[in-house]
Amino acid sequence: MSDIELMAVIERYLNGEMNAAERARFELLRHDNEAVDARVKEHQEFTDRIKQYGERLQFESMLNEIHDEIDVQALKDELVHHPSAIVRLWRNHHSKISVAASITIFAVLGTLFLTGYMKSQSQEAAVINLKHDVDIIKRKQTYQISNIHAAKKIAPDNYGGIGTGFAISSNGYIVTNFHVVNGADSVYVQNADGDAFHAKIVTTDAVNDLAVLKITDPSFKSLGALPYGFKRGKLDLGEDLFTLGYSKDDQVLSKGYLSSGNGYKGDTVNYQIAMDVNFGNSGGPVLDSRGNIVGVVSSKPAGSGGSAYAIKSKYLIKSIQADTSVNSLSLSSKSKIANLSRTQQIEKLQNYVFMVKVYNR
Predict the structure, then answer these.
(1) Fewer Cβ close by (within 10 Å): the C or N end of the chain?
(2) What is the three-state SS of 172-189?
(3) Distances (CA, A) of 278 to 44, 100, 237, 252, 307
(4) Residue 199: φ, ψ to 5°
(5) Which is nearest to 107 in space by CA: 126, 124, 130, 123?
């Protein structure tokens, strides 16, 4: 089945267009073929994010239309000359205020109340109640609008997928997989606090499936000295390993061990690791118990079954040393978190591991 044919089948599956027999056969294929299952999950996430972005745009458009519909000056004039109009205002516009929380109307009502224009106790009570309600809604709207603008900044409609990356310097150089950023029109990275930064692709190594990014966003601040070191020697079979990655919207810890010194079919560039890694983990750091980077999570070759793989750290080091655009970076072999507990190590690592968001033409 060609790639185009597979995507057409996935579309029919996700849209509920298959009959019961077809759906059962396809679900069996997903169960037996991890590559197909990964494509289904990737496509589902892609379509979900597009839908979410469309809903945000629709909501913002609705807010703007409602705000334009409210004639603020006419309402102000009516309130100034007819204080009792506060009741009619609420009756006629409470649904619009509930959605739009017009800041201008709120300011008018607040000014009238504070200047003592509305003298009657019942009118004052009405204004106080309305002020309280609108203040709550205003805060909610401000939060929603900030989310909309943030989404517009970092989520254009050509969303291409996600991966994981980790810092190799304090000033914004980040390593991820080549296959994560291959063909990207633009790239953003997001830290553990949810802050997103624009990044550019500095260099790629397709042979070893590695890429180096550089954060170019002016809002980015230095990370400080890296807490981990980069191991140059080989690992022992059965050695405990762990990774932090973005298999969902926040960081996920996965633990495991070295199951083979080589990768699929004797590939010497990769380790085989017994670890639960999923879509989104690609490009994440693999660390040993002393907090040394020993590898970079890589993709699972077709037909490799349930095994996971990691590019050996020595090939990461060689790749960086061989490229003049990044060979000035110094990758220390000394870990600063070697004697910490696992939870303490993770706390130190979190700000150095990023979600990589890719957008395609």
Answers:
(1) C
(2) CEEEECHHHHCCEEEEEE
(3) 14, 41, 23, 10, 11
(4) -135, 155
(5) 130
183 torsion bin: left (phi>0), alpha (psi -120 to 50), beta (else): left
Residues 6+ apart with CB under 8 A from 135: 106
Q: What are the Cα distances from residue 326, in Å, to 41, 57, 158, 210, 323?
A: 34, 40, 29, 13, 6
Question: Contact at 8 Å (CB) between 313 and 231?
Answer: yes
Determine the angle formed by the axes of helices 72-81 and 85-100, rounding to 10 degrees.
150
**Integer Cα distance of 343 and 347 in angstroms:** 6
Residues 19-68 pLDDT 10s: 888 888 888 888 888 888 888 888 888 777 777 777 777 766 776 666 56
Cβ 223 vs Cβ 284: under 8 Å: no
- Angle (CA) 233 299 31, round 5°: 130
Residue 21 and residue 8: Cα distance in Å, rounded? Answer: 17
CB 225 within 8 A of CB 334: no
Distance, CA of 178 to chain centre:
18
The H or E element spanning position 97 is: helix 85-100
Residues in the chain: 361
Please name the residue that has the structure tokens 């090939």: 315
Percent of the chain surpassing pLDDT 70:
70
Q: Number of helices (H) and strands (E), helices first, in the chain?
A: 10, 13
Domains and CATH numbers, the chain: 70-152 (no CATH), 158-361 (2.40.10.120)
- DSSP tag of 312: E
Q: How far is CA 353 from the centre of its chain?
A: 12
